Records
---
Amino acid sequence: MKTDIKSMTLEELQADMRAMGQSAFRAGQIYTWLHRGATSFWEMTNLSKELRETLDQRYEITAPKVVRRQESKKDGTVKYLWRLSDGNCVETVLMRYHYGNSVCISSEVGCPMGCSFCASTLGGLVRRLRPSEMLDQVLFTQLDSGLPISHIVLMGIGEPLDNFDTVMRFLELVNSPQGLNISMRHISLSTCGLVPKILKLAEKKLQLTLSVSLHAPSDEIRNTIMPVNRAYNVETLLNACRAYYAATNRRISFEYAMIRDVNDSEDCARLLLRRLKGLPAHVNLIPLNEVAESPLHPSSRQTVQRFQKLLEEGGVTATVRRTLGGDIDASCGQLRRNFEKAEKGSVSS
Ligand code: SAH
């Protein structure tokens, strides 16, 4: 088995080079090549032929292949479906904003969390991604599009905090000055609410933005749409958010998918206000994206606006998420799901 070189930190690569009798300087050269998207050691022309041969025998360089590329005609959003080295597929979405180009990346193949409105979880978890496979989504989106990526959101397929150590390593890689050098303040991580992992993340005191998929203000409602709520209920989750804020001083972003007749009443807005009291928060209202396999529907535009107004009047900042890529199956997991259905005739779920 060859070692997955792109999952290694610069320090680890330096230690390997020293052990091979090479200078640490070589590690820096190799690391730079890898983080610019080199797919073979033969491209690394500033290394000797002997060293390139040795590296090729020891290490593997991951490189996903594009199997689908869909571009929105409306807003330039591009959705990639990548095939990984073992044949599994994951999605990445490139979004263009006035402040820069942002990629939404996947952290797992499939998802174990079982949220009833989400396409990513329909077939369960297949496997967790490796650090290199998360980094590749950023590198190869940048190479394919020719657009520099300045922002990353971990909101694609999978639950990032279920793949905690890999995600921490990925953050170290993209943040490294010799690599893409993307600032933590330009990175958002979204979780369905794995409380022990939120507390573990708080200890790291990173400057990233934590997004919490709340989607309901009561256990009664949240239990019906998010199985994770049976393990960590709303109160436990919001207490963890308070602890996270106390440790990091970073305002938390709450995602709230507006689902018709499920979580969109005025009582829900009022209860949400009560529960968020004293917690510096931003609520992101997302009109539900319809998923073919789910009976749930989005709330009307008027209901979303009324909900937003109630939150704002109660002193909580609330925005309605602009839907990008609405014409290209751009919500979580839909492209992979539709591709696999077409390829295999059906998907186990
Ligand atoms: N597992 C993580 C991150 C991935 S999902 C999490 O749960 O936060 C990114 C966001 O999209 C989450 O807030 C998720 O709840 C939301 N989402 C999933 N399916 C959706 C749908 N059909 N419509 C609107 N939002 C959806």
---
Amino acid sequence: MRKSVIALLFAAVLSAQSIEYSAGRKTWLLKTASNAYALGVNQRGELQNLYWGGPLWRFDDIHAAQAGPEWSSFDPSQSQTNEEFLGWGGTRYLEPSVKITRANGVRDLVLHYVSHKIDGNQLDIVMKDINDDIFVTLNYLVYPAEGMIRKQAKLENRSGQPLTVESLQSGVWYLPHGEGYRLSYLTGRWAAETQLTREDIHTGEKVIESRKGHTSHNANPWFAIDQDGAANEESGRVWFGALGWSGNWRITVEQTPYSQVRVTGGWNTFDFSYTVKPGESLETPPFYGGYSNHGFGEASRMLHRFERTQILPGGGKARLRPVLYNSWEATEFAVDEPGQKALAEKAAKLGVELFVMDDGWFGKRNTDHAGLGDWTVNPQKFPRGLTPLIEAVRSLGMQFGLWVEPEMVNPDSDLYRAHPDWAMHFPGRPRSELRTQLVLNMARDDVKEHIFSVLDKLASDYPIKYFKWDMNRPFAEPGWDGAPDQKELWVKYVRNTWEIFDRLRAKHPGLEIESCSGGGGRVDLGILKRVDEVWTSDNTEAFDRLRIQEGFSQAYAPKIMSAWVTDVPNMNGRSTPLKFRFLVAMQGALGIGSNLNKFSEADVQLATQMVAYYKKIRGTVQEGKLYRLVSPRIGDVTANQYVSEDGAQSVLFAFLHSQQYRKPAPAIRLAGLDPKAVYRIQVLGQNDWRTFSGAYLMNEGVTVRLAGDYDSTSVLIEKAAN
Ligand code: GLA
């Protein structure tokens, strides 16, 4: 009964108009199944944010916009007016949404409402400078079912003189007026990405950003905000957002002295400059936002669903991620035909579906000192080319994938010797190498065309299903020899690189791509439009992974979270059992990176069973709802549960990582089940099934008998027929 009422309400929201406009009050209401957003035009003609939060059913609640008071000459009205998109001009001192300099040096920009257009789920609001023909169009796209809103801005220069844009942000989000907010965000470093960080928001600005040219390991363009520390995984109000940009980005969380929290996001203003000539325009990347009434867990599930259905290539129709084998940790650069074939045979027996050959197959690539840029098969390692290996892989029933790092060049390469000017540099200045490589200036169209043709040729010459596209260093000395507007490199690099992904996919339908940047250095809602999965971290040590994956899952879907089982001792010297490693990796897109030549009979047997188990539950893991039941940051145990969209299957993963002698593991209370339904549950490795009501499993929980460090288990939960 309850379910059908919810379904009806949901259907009603979806069938109703997602954007309403009141001409009398000059207000707009944007509605989704789980939240609402409102804005209006105030008496001065400024566009003003009016609401962002839980669903509203009464448009009349939204009053006409009213500019804030002027308290003193030091506290002007504009400081207390929640302007939706703020030109830097007049008496505005908050973080601007757009800042320009005209050719004649005039920098004042005051934007007022001109017109709007509603087209289905899209709203365009046009604003214009009070004097000049400088226009900004704000575009809103509402995703009613997913509970998300996309913001984007376009600046058009119809004035007679060129403009230098010093900042053009994607948008601003306003929290309900007040204080006591708390910010959640993701920080990290190489091999320790996506660490969940929480801190109170105080007056002033908190900036999370990348200045490195790629999205970066150090911070990720996602935020979540709750108030009074009141939200937890399953309850409380959470406002959240994420940027779709794979280069220099910035999210500025600002609490004004007037108790207003506002979040501005888009291109990083650091070293930013873009010339917009008369007749030209500049469009920002998207900034997505959502609101959840049910804590951080629901906020993540909303993002996961949104990514699967609206962002990732193929949307809801994309296939489940196959079980992958990758040779990197087994062989590093020592790849050759017999070695790869031997690994492929062993991988196929375990149930692997996609075999990926990593670094080392091209040019003079025997170490990381040479070869990048020379994307031709190394004749010593593959005297007969790649075809015999690919045929062998395919005849074993697997698809073939290949590692590439197209944006890079080693100085010791034929490409660099032929085109030293293609590497990013400032004339007459040192070229800083990292991992003995330089970054190609992808902003240049000749470089872009060359890289496209290299990858196109590989995808045309061989039946390659999958590229693992790597990027193993950040930018340095981002000079662009000969270009009048050198700083545009930051933006044009990303756009050209994205274009290659798009053209490759269009020309080779079915080709899949993994985004890797030394692990999780390029994960954002921009690259996710062009790739099928991402390499989460170069750190494959299973215990460390629990935290990395907890952070990753705040913002990104388990389906794209590539996770490998690798050999021990790993990275930090820790040795966890093979079962623990498998169960950790099975919480995303399972891969294996072990040296299979070293597997014992018992390892092979366990791995085969684990891969078979994964195939039984992967639909639920990859496309279900994730409940983070017990955090690895808090105690000795980590537990995560996944529930399929239709509620028929669920799976629990539980890990013990630091047990005090004989301290029993706690009962794990499940979530996301139907309290009225009956479920049968089976512990991995046991034959018997037991039945319980959803109510019992969610109130009392399941006792996981974990004993000793790095013990782990999984429980399969199936809804019994009514
Ligand atoms: C990066 C990737 C690894 C591997 C190496 C190869 O570090 O993250 O997975 O592909 O490059 O050089």
---
Amino acid sequence: MSTYVFGHINPDSDSIVGAISLSYLKNQLGEECIPTRQGDITAETEFILNKFGGKLPELKTSYAGEKVYLIDFSNTLEAPKDIADATILGIVDHHKLGDITTDTPLECWIRPIGCSNTIVKEMYDFHKVEIPKDIAGMMMLAILSDTVIFKSPTCTKVDTKAVKELAAICGVEDYKALAMEMFIAKSAVKGASARNLNTRDYKMFDMNGAKVGINQLEMIDISALDDRKEELFEDMKKLKEDDSLHTILVLLTDIIKEGSQLLVVSDDESKVEAALDTKLQNSQAWLPGVLSRKKQVIPFLQPQFK
Ligand code: MG
Ligand code: MG
Ligand code: MG
């Protein structure tokens, strides 16, 4: 039996870097841990690993009989299929509490702050373990990604402080410029299929029995997708069927204009309109100021299914 550390399906940078940073901390504390991932990495995560020489965690999708730490999720729909047959030693997360439960007591670090890696930074501080330069750099960029360079309403003082301290450790002075480079890498859409675009940051939620899928594309200029909306809608319809969803939302988030273009395919569009206080036109709406799925979308959508 081994111990693995991994993040959610369709892994983002927080999930991949978190597996690396939390495994290293655990190893320093004398607990042998292996960082893994549940899926392919994004262009953004590739940028982060290349920048700081990080090693890609191994792909592993089955964990029956193993010990595990979960990072950046606590939701069954984002977990490996056989998670119920694994022993969960701990959860480090910054989302709403999911439905994963355990048979044994566990270590839990769940806080309403901007990034799981900020929590991992606090764990290093708590245990007085030094963070190596390369891991500090990756953690810094994961936090800058999750907080959209501090613009997201999920961002807290704890996150900005962590970034500054990690920047000092990894020796990057202009961390905002580096984060901008990262978002440019993340914004590349040329040649990507509609399915790739629709699932880059795709999560499913069980909202009182109704399955809702939400994808978010964070870009420096969403007009790059202006002539691909039809194609995205066609694929959203297929994805809705594939995953038996009541509703699928795609948020095209413009991090410069600071808002999201919402695309909707739903059995009942009025629920989405009521939740987000908007009027859809051709199943679309511009949501000014909306940058965060977890804080500005899910909390309002969930009550519509009560
Ligand atoms: Mg995540
Ligand atoms: Mg996160
Ligand atoms: Mg994100």
---
Amino acid sequence: MRARIAGTGSYVPERVLTNADLERMVATSDEWIVERTGIRERRIAAPGEACSDLGAKAAERALEAADLRATDLDLILVATCTGDVPLPSTACLLQDRLGAGHVAACDISAACCGFVYALSVGDAYVKTGLRHVLVVGAEVMSSMTDWTDRSTCVLFGDGAGAVVLSATDEDRGILSSHLHSDGNLWDLICVQGGGSRFPTSEKMLAEGLQYLKMKGNETFKVAVKTLEEAAREALTAHSLSVEDLDLYVPHQANVRIIKAVASRLGLPMEKVVLNMDRYGNTSAASIPLALDEAVRAGRVRDGDLVMIEAFGGGLTWASALIRW
Ligand code: UT7
């Protein structure tokens, strides 16, 4: 059996935060942000709107597209680093919200790579007998953003995307996924406070350890190198070449990273899905959000070869090939 994507869905909060808005908050400019990142605006969750609120709406749309009910699901996986609460998992909250049966539900923590990791876990479970698996990537990155730090606050946004994986005996679906990590580089992108190392305290909050910190320039260089490697690894595993790819759906961190990877691979930009201009970097939500937009825009046809690929905190990087 293979796992095929039977339906996709996404949701973004209503509030739009533009580069012009950010110009009024920190020493930045629309010109700098667009030139260095490709981002023009991002969505920000309303007060009280949490990860599972976004995830539930994306999941409902994916279930509708797959023509399935929540009670058909055998497993719920949520990729996130901004869950509603530290405990329980956002996946359990989603199970209840969707009215799914008493099925297994858990979160996957792999930062911006979370969706590709979760998809690979869902794929493995389908191969061992489950019929329908919900895989959600949902983030409220604004909850860990330091709005006085111009090096990070211009980059991230909130949103959610979801897919339903269904078992098929047809020769299509997820061909393989290729997951990697290098914990030695953990401090390139991290939130240091709020866990067991630096539990929440007045001192921890005063030091700003609750916020996401990133060494952007170093991260950029590792991203380009590892994304190229993971793309080639996936293609080589199936004796395929870059020319065989119909669509490339990368993590939407920075248009310059994506262009550099596409250029190294020799992949024309017409085959690349880009939407960070409207949503910024939504971490684990970025790929399923971009994939859903591409599917609904008619950019993915039956039989197409689609590659998804991400890079993020951990460090983690991962690719997956899908025959649509
Ligand atoms: O999703 C997880 C994976 N994350 C990524 O892949 C992110 C990877 N990194 C990046 O996308 C880029 O490194 C950034 C967009 C974060 C930064 O772009 P950069 O071209 O690497 O800029 P930089 O960090 O080298 O900074 C260049 C200059 C600095 O000023 P000086 O030292 O040259 O005077 C920064 O202080 O730009 C300055 N700068 C800004 N200026 C205006 C940094 N942030 C801003 C800003 N507005 N928002």
